[in-house]
Protein backbone atom coordinates (compact mmCIF):
# COMPACT_ATOMS: atom_id res chain seq x y z
CA UNK A 1 0.00 0.00 0.00
CA UNK A 2 1.36 3.43 -0.96
CA UNK A 3 2.45 5.79 1.84
CA UNK A 4 0.25 8.40 0.14
CA UNK A 5 -2.86 6.37 0.97
CA UNK A 6 -4.04 7.39 4.45
CA UNK A 7 -7.38 5.54 4.51
CA UNK A 8 -7.94 2.14 2.94
CA UNK A 9 -11.07 0.01 3.28
CA UNK A 10 -11.42 -3.42 1.68
CA UNK A 11 -14.73 -5.31 1.49
CA UNK A 12 -16.20 -3.72 4.65
CA UNK A 13 -19.58 -4.95 5.89
CA UNK A 14 -21.67 -3.72 8.85
CA UNK A 15 -25.05 -5.02 10.01
CA UNK A 16 -27.29 -3.79 12.83
CA UNK A 17 -30.21 -5.50 14.50
CA UNK A 18 -33.02 -2.94 14.87
CA UNK A 19 -35.79 -4.61 16.84
CA UNK A 20 -37.14 -7.29 14.52
CA UNK A 21 -35.25 -5.98 11.50
CA UNK A 22 -31.72 -6.69 10.39
CA UNK A 23 -30.25 -3.64 8.63
CA UNK A 24 -27.09 -4.01 6.55
CA UNK A 25 -25.61 -0.50 6.65
CA UNK A 26 -22.44 -1.25 4.65
CA UNK A 27 -22.25 -3.79 1.85
CA UNK A 28 -18.73 -4.66 0.70
CA UNK A 29 -17.41 -1.09 0.79
CA UNK A 30 -14.03 -0.41 -0.82
CA UNK A 31 -12.34 2.98 -0.46
CA UNK A 32 -8.87 4.50 -0.68
CA UNK A 33 -8.13 8.14 0.17
CA UNK A 34 -4.84 9.92 -0.51
CA UNK A 35 -3.05 12.27 1.86
CA UNK A 36 -4.29 15.84 1.54
CA UNK A 37 -7.39 14.82 -0.41
CA UNK A 38 -10.86 16.18 0.38
CA UNK A 39 -13.42 13.48 -0.37
CA UNK A 40 -17.16 14.13 -0.29
CA UNK A 41 -19.63 11.31 0.34
CA UNK A 42 -23.16 12.15 -0.70
CA UNK A 43 -26.33 10.15 -0.23
CA UNK A 44 -29.78 10.09 1.35
CA UNK A 45 -30.44 9.59 5.07
CA UNK A 46 -30.03 5.98 6.12
CA UNK A 47 -27.70 5.12 3.22
CA UNK A 48 -24.76 4.23 5.52
CA UNK A 49 -22.73 7.47 5.38
CA UNK A 50 -22.49 8.04 9.15
CA UNK A 51 -21.75 4.37 9.79
CA UNK A 52 -18.87 4.54 7.33
CA UNK A 53 -17.35 7.56 9.11
CA UNK A 54 -17.70 5.92 12.54
CA UNK A 55 -15.91 2.81 11.28
CA UNK A 56 -13.03 4.88 9.84
CA UNK A 57 -12.84 6.75 13.18
CA UNK A 58 -12.73 3.48 15.14
CA UNK A 59 -15.95 4.32 16.97
CA UNK A 60 -17.62 1.22 15.55
CA UNK A 61 -16.10 -2.00 14.27
CA UNK A 62 -16.99 -3.68 10.96
CA UNK A 63 -18.47 -7.19 10.92
CA UNK A 64 -15.87 -8.10 8.34
CA UNK A 65 -13.38 -6.46 6.03
CA UNK A 66 -10.17 -4.47 6.54
CA UNK A 67 -9.97 -0.87 7.77
CA UNK A 68 -6.47 0.61 7.61
CA UNK A 69 -5.94 4.19 8.79
CA UNK A 70 -2.45 5.74 8.66
CA UNK A 71 -0.97 2.25 8.55
CA UNK A 72 -2.96 0.98 11.56
CA UNK A 73 -5.20 -2.02 10.89
CA UNK A 74 -8.13 -1.11 13.12
CA UNK A 75 -9.13 -4.77 13.48
CA UNK A 76 -5.82 -5.33 15.32
CA UNK A 77 -6.34 -2.51 17.85
CA UNK A 78 -8.02 -2.94 21.22
CA UNK A 79 -10.25 -0.22 22.71
CA UNK A 80 -7.24 1.65 24.12
CA UNK A 81 -5.57 1.58 20.72
CA UNK A 82 -8.71 2.91 19.04
CA UNK A 83 -8.96 5.68 21.67
CA UNK A 84 -5.33 6.60 20.95
CA UNK A 85 -6.11 6.74 17.24
CA UNK A 86 -9.07 9.09 17.81
CA UNK A 87 -7.02 11.34 20.06
CA UNK A 88 -3.93 11.68 17.85
CA UNK A 89 -4.59 10.63 14.24
CA UNK A 90 -8.29 11.17 13.49
CA UNK A 91 -10.37 14.24 14.31
CA UNK A 92 -14.06 13.25 14.22
CA UNK A 93 -16.85 15.85 14.06
CA UNK A 94 -20.25 14.25 14.77
CA UNK A 95 -23.42 15.58 13.19
CA UNK A 96 -24.66 16.91 16.55
CA UNK A 97 -21.17 18.45 17.10
CA UNK A 98 -20.87 16.86 20.56
CA UNK A 99 -20.19 20.16 22.32
CA UNK A 100 -20.58 20.17 26.12
CA UNK A 101 -22.94 23.04 26.90
CA UNK A 102 -21.73 23.43 30.51
CA UNK A 103 -18.14 24.10 29.39
CA UNK A 104 -16.78 27.28 27.83
CA UNK A 105 -15.54 27.33 24.24
CA UNK A 106 -11.97 27.21 25.54
CA UNK A 107 -12.74 24.17 27.73
CA UNK A 108 -14.52 22.32 24.91
CA UNK A 109 -11.51 22.75 22.62
CA UNK A 110 -9.06 21.87 25.42
CA UNK A 111 -10.75 18.55 26.22
CA UNK A 112 -8.77 16.29 23.82
CA UNK A 113 -5.51 17.75 25.17
CA UNK A 114 -6.59 17.03 28.76
CA UNK A 115 -7.35 13.43 27.77
CA UNK A 116 -3.92 13.22 26.11
CA UNK A 117 -2.26 14.42 29.34
CA UNK A 118 -0.63 17.51 27.82
CA UNK A 119 0.85 19.97 30.39
CA UNK A 120 -1.29 23.02 31.17
CA UNK A 121 0.95 25.69 29.60
CA UNK A 122 1.24 23.67 26.37
CA UNK A 123 -2.53 23.15 26.34
CA UNK A 124 -3.16 26.87 26.70
CA UNK A 125 -0.77 27.79 23.88
CA UNK A 126 -2.28 25.16 21.59
CA UNK A 127 -5.92 26.08 22.32
CA UNK A 128 -5.38 29.82 21.87
CA UNK A 129 -3.45 29.23 18.65
CA UNK A 130 -6.22 27.03 17.19
CA UNK A 131 -8.93 29.48 18.27
CA UNK A 132 -7.17 32.32 16.48
CA UNK A 133 -6.61 30.18 13.38
CA UNK A 134 -10.26 29.15 13.24
CA UNK A 135 -11.61 32.67 13.79
CA UNK A 136 -12.81 32.36 17.40
CA UNK A 137 -10.34 34.65 19.18
CA UNK A 138 -12.05 36.52 22.03
CA UNK A 139 -14.75 33.85 22.50
CA UNK A 140 -12.79 31.82 25.07
CA UNK A 141 -15.25 32.31 27.96
CA UNK A 142 -18.46 32.04 25.95
CA UNK A 143 -20.70 28.99 26.31
CA UNK A 144 -21.79 27.12 23.15
CA UNK A 145 -25.42 28.17 23.62
CA UNK A 146 -24.40 31.81 23.10
CA UNK A 147 -22.91 31.14 19.66
CA UNK A 148 -24.39 31.12 16.18
CA UNK A 149 -24.65 27.88 14.23
CA UNK A 150 -21.57 28.77 12.18
CA UNK A 151 -19.56 29.55 15.31
CA UNK A 152 -20.61 26.28 16.96
CA UNK A 153 -19.43 24.42 13.89
CA UNK A 154 -16.08 26.23 14.13
CA UNK A 155 -15.73 25.16 17.78
CA UNK A 156 -16.28 21.54 16.74
CA UNK A 157 -13.67 21.92 13.98
CA UNK A 158 -11.22 23.56 16.40
CA UNK A 159 -11.67 20.70 18.89
CA UNK A 160 -11.03 18.17 16.11
CA UNK A 161 -7.97 20.14 14.96
CA UNK A 162 -6.34 20.87 18.31
CA UNK A 163 -4.41 17.58 18.45
CA UNK A 164 -3.09 18.19 14.90
CA UNK A 165 -4.66 15.06 13.38
CA UNK A 166 -3.71 13.95 9.88
CA UNK A 167 -7.34 13.05 9.11
CA UNK A 168 -10.59 14.93 9.79
CA UNK A 169 -13.98 13.23 9.38
CA UNK A 170 -17.00 15.58 9.28
CA UNK A 171 -20.56 14.23 9.46
CA UNK A 172 -23.02 16.67 7.82
CA UNK A 173 -21.00 19.78 8.84
CA UNK A 174 -23.31 22.17 6.96
CA UNK A 175 -26.67 20.57 7.78
CA UNK A 176 -27.84 23.24 10.25
CA UNK A 177 -26.37 26.27 8.48
CA UNK A 178 -27.67 28.65 5.85
CA UNK A 179 -25.71 28.41 2.60
CA UNK A 180 -23.52 31.51 3.15
CA UNK A 181 -22.31 30.11 6.51
CA UNK A 182 -21.99 26.64 4.99
CA UNK A 183 -19.62 28.02 2.35
CA UNK A 184 -17.45 29.61 5.07
CA UNK A 185 -17.17 26.24 6.82
CA UNK A 186 -16.32 24.44 3.56
CA UNK A 187 -13.70 27.07 2.72
CA UNK A 188 -12.25 26.59 6.20
CA UNK A 189 -11.85 22.85 5.50
CA UNK A 190 -10.00 23.75 2.29
CA UNK A 191 -7.72 26.12 4.21
CA UNK A 192 -6.94 23.40 6.78
CA UNK A 193 -6.09 20.98 3.97
CA UNK A 194 -3.89 23.54 2.21
CA UNK A 195 -2.08 24.59 5.41
CA UNK A 196 -1.57 21.17 7.02
CA UNK A 197 -2.01 18.65 4.16
CA UNK A 198 -4.87 17.14 6.18
CA UNK A 199 -6.98 14.38 4.65
CA UNK A 200 -10.66 15.31 5.00
CA UNK A 201 -13.84 13.30 4.43
CA UNK A 202 -17.08 15.25 4.40
CA UNK A 203 -20.42 13.41 4.53
CA UNK A 204 -23.45 15.36 3.30
CA UNK A 205 -26.86 14.91 1.74
CA UNK A 206 -26.47 18.33 0.04
CA UNK A 207 -25.08 18.05 -3.52
CA UNK A 208 -23.78 21.65 -3.38
CA UNK A 209 -21.19 20.59 -0.79
CA UNK A 210 -19.55 18.29 -3.33
CA UNK A 211 -18.28 21.26 -5.36
CA UNK A 212 -15.87 21.98 -2.49
CA UNK A 213 -14.31 18.50 -2.58
CA UNK A 214 -11.61 16.98 -4.79
CA UNK A 215 -13.62 13.81 -5.38
CA UNK A 216 -17.24 12.90 -4.80
CA UNK A 217 -18.59 9.47 -3.93
CA UNK A 218 -22.18 8.30 -3.75
CA UNK A 219 -23.55 6.19 -0.89
CA UNK A 220 -26.81 4.41 -1.58
CA UNK A 221 -28.34 1.51 0.34
CA UNK A 222 -24.98 0.51 1.83
CA UNK A 223 -23.05 0.59 -1.45
CA UNK A 224 -20.31 3.15 -2.20
CA UNK A 225 -19.57 4.23 -5.75
CA UNK A 226 -18.04 7.11 -7.70
CA UNK A 227 -20.52 9.96 -8.00
CA UNK A 228 -21.10 10.31 -11.76
CA UNK A 229 -23.73 12.99 -11.27
CA UNK A 230 -21.12 15.76 -11.04
CA UNK A 231 -19.08 14.85 -14.09
Question: What would you say this structure looks like, in words?
Answer:
33% of the residues lie in helices and 29% in strands. The chain is α/β, with parallel strands linked by helices and 231 residues long. The protein folds into 2 domains: 1-89 and 169-231, Rossmann fold (3-Layer(aba) Sandwich); 97-164, no CATH class. Strand 1 and strand 2 form a beta hairpin.
How is the topology of this model organized?
Blueprint: E1 5-18, E2 21-34, E3 38-42, H1 49-56, E4 64-69, E5 72-73, H2 79-88, E6 90-93, H3 105-116, H4 120-134, H5 149-161, E7 167-171, H6 179-196, E8 199-204, E9 215-220, E10 223-226
Parallel strand pairs: 3-8, 3-9, 6-7, 7-8
Antiparallel strand pairs: 1-2, 1-4, 4-5, 9-10
Helix pairs in contact: 3-4, 3-5, 4-5, 5-6
> What percent of residues adopt helix (DSSP H or I)?
25-40%
Largest sheet strand order: 6-7-8-3-9-10
User: Overall pLDDT, averaged?
Assistant: 90
- Uncertain runs with pLDDT below 50, 5 residues or more? none
CATH topology of the largest domain: Rossmann fold
Strand content: 25-35%
Kindly report the name of the CATH homologous superfamily of the largest domain.
P-loop containing nucleotide triphosphate hydrolases
* Second-tier CATH architecture of the largest domain: 3-Layer(aba) Sandwich
CATH class of the largest domain: Alpha Beta
Any idea what the radius of gyration is? Answer: 17 Å
| H/E series | EEEHEEHEHHHEHEEE
Task: Give the domain tally.
Answer: 2
Shape: globular
- Major sheet description: 6 strands, mixed
Number of helical regions:
6
The SS-based structural class is: alpha/beta
Q: For this entry, what is the oligomeric state of its chains?
A: single chain
Number of strands: 10
Amino acid sequence: MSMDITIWLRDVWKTYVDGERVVTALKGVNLSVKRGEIVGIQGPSGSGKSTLLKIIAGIERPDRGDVIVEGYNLNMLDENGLAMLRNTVVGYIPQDLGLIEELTIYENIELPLLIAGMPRNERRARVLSVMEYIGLKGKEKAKPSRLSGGERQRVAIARALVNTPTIILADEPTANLDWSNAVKVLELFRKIRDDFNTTIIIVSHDPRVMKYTDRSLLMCDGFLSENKLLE
